[in-house]
Amino acid sequence: MALRPVLILTAGFGEGHNAAARNLRDALRQAHPDLSVEVLDIFHLAYGWVNGLSQRGYLFVINHLPGVWSLVFRWLHGSPVVSERMGVLRKAAALLRAAIDELQPGVIVSTYPGYNHLLDHIFDRVQQRSYRQITVVTDSITINAVWHAGHSDFYLVANEPTAEVMRRDGVPVDKLRVTGFPVPPTFEALLREKNPPAPGEKWRVLFMVNSGKRTAVQALRELVRIEGIDLAVTVGRDDRLMRRLRAIIRSSGKPVELYGWTDQLPRLIAESHIVISKAGGATVQECLALASPMIVSQVVPGQEEGNARLIVDTGSGRIAETPEAMVRELRCAMADDGAVWQGWHRMARLQSRPGASREMADWILTLCQ
């Protein structure tokens, strides 16, 4: 029997949504090469530059006005405004309806919470639908009610603490599945046991500069002063920041690896003893999947608070939001032959689910009949 297509819906408001969508698509295609899998960002298709402007505004607020975003996040948690205002997104609704009519999917997967409400607007919430609807929740523990206020047949969450939060918020037990986060399928081959450096070797440290870049320059100045580490830095597509960091590295005389946008992140994370980065949903889960402890350098109020809490509560790293604190925690982790680090690594290894996307894909295929 031919399997019906899978439609995966994502949005560019935070890289975790796109990462989950891409990784799940790749896992589905690996599991069943003949399966039709489509990934769409309906909001980008419908609103183009306006959507891009909204994304830049979101990044500005979370990085420069975190207190404002904290208020917005908490207001959205208790407000019906998202579900009630979907009617204004007529173009998005029309494009999504057209995509469903054309593809006739057996399963729709949403990695962004707004789509459940948009689908409720297109199809009355109690209407029988011709597809199964799955929501992949991309954050941990601090889960905004927007994720589950709309209809979904199943919610796939990364860990048991997140499932417990959603159960307390009223999500039926039979709709929740603890699956891990859909990291790239290649992670299963990349996962390795790590040990402290042998005599003459150095600690491998990866500093991932994400959207919060205000402290990146000073943080790098502090990190290059630390002896006994091999440092790699990723910057993304920010050419101006790249030039500033390159100048610091040049003046330090240290052999730091500096990357712009790179497809080598999985390898870099896997090879690193410690990753310093913000508490993004995908970043945290990728580090845990590869058992690479984290020093969390930035926490966006609201959705990222739970991601950071997961690192701390599981004993897989620490939070350090200033350059001085980053250095202090890094030195602490390396001291006494890495006694603290060994505890972090052991606990991160217990959280590791590098095969999550494959397991999720296998289950989704059973729904595509």
Give an overview in words.
With 369 residues, this protein is of the alpha/beta class. It folds into 2 domains: 6-182 and 355-366, Glycogen Phosphorylase B (Rossmann fold, 3-Layer(aba) Sandwich); 187-351, Glycogen Phosphorylase B (Rossmann fold, 3-Layer(aba) Sandwich). The protein has helices at residues 15-31, 42-64, 66-78, 81-84, 90-103, 114-122, 146-149, 160-168, 187-190, 216-223, 239-252, 265-271, 281-289, 303-313, 323-351, 356-366, and strands at residues 6-9, 37-40, 107-110, 132-136, 154-157, 176-178, 203-208, 229-234, 257-259, 274-278, 294-298, 317-319. α10 runs parallel beside α11 (239-252). The chain starts with 5 loop residues before the first strand and ends with a helix.
